[in-house]
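This section describes the prediction task in plain terms. A model, or a person checking by hand, is given the sequence of a single protein chain and must write out its three-dimensional structure as a string of tokens. No templates, partner chains or ligands are provided. The sample shown here is typical of the held-out split.
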Amino acid sequence: MNLNEPDLAGGDDGGGESIWPSVTINVLAFNRKDIVHTTLSMVTNKLDYPADRLEIILVDNGSTDGTREMVAAEFPCVKVVVIEKNRGVSGWNEGFEAGGGDYFLVLDDDCYLVGDSLKRAVESAEIHGADLVSFLVSSPYEENFFFNQTYNTGILSFWGCSALISREAIERLGGFDRNIFVGTHELEFTVRLLGQGMKHLFLPEVVSYHMKKLSWRHSFDVAFWIINLRNLSYIAGKLFQPGDAILAFLNLVCRLLLMARHHPRVSAALPRMCQGFWHGLRLRAPVRDNVSAVYRKNFNEFVNPLPFLRNPAKQENFYAGRPQYYPVEKAILEL
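The expected answer:
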């Protein structure tokens, strides 16, 4: 559903001061001290949000490059949570446990927001009762480049380098799945969020900046796809209804075989996919039938890829034909 309602002005306590929900900025870092310095500089100096309603937590995910020492010395306002061994994306859960905000702004160590972007995200979440707000993700290295255009997650997932999540969602869902080390954790979280009847708001008027080099666009990352195919298989086995789980897994296998024609090394994903699917089956927590069906029929990786092979135009029309799941304007999804 597209949304055009005006944003809500901040509440008032009767004394002329706006009352803003408290926000915990939850940054996950691993061995990127210089990048972390940039991120923290931006959110401490360039972000317009009431200081008394904001806390910043950096989860040091087993770094060995002096990240925690740098933060302690140069950003004394930032609370550092230390994890001795890298736990991957589930390290964010430590920040969720330590934070006291009504909302959590989840950031990769190489991503930041500036200006009034956080205010607009929080206002919109309050207006629409959204428990997840995702943004456009841009690059500070190339003007008018948006990562969302290179991989269109739509509103069925989000770019995990930045998102606003309500405390209620964290408490009900328990944070990110600890069985996913990296990749697709956003998808798994969104499936469960929508499965609980909560709302995901896509807010393209808010832009976050992802300090990721753009050279990756010109190469096929075999390791990335091996990990993702394993995780996608795990998600299908864990969260989908039985028929959808089987069809989604078979479609993933078909996708793998098509990839392997041009990139034979990606075939190494097959045993890991089977392991991931079996692991998901052992942890079964299926979402409602309608949510499962929406993902199996409308999330690109779970859809049968053969029709796109025979008719490439169908791939181009896939997203355009599903505007409720792949919006280009402000939209909210509740299933």
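For orientation: Confidence is low (pLDDT under 50) at residues 5-16.
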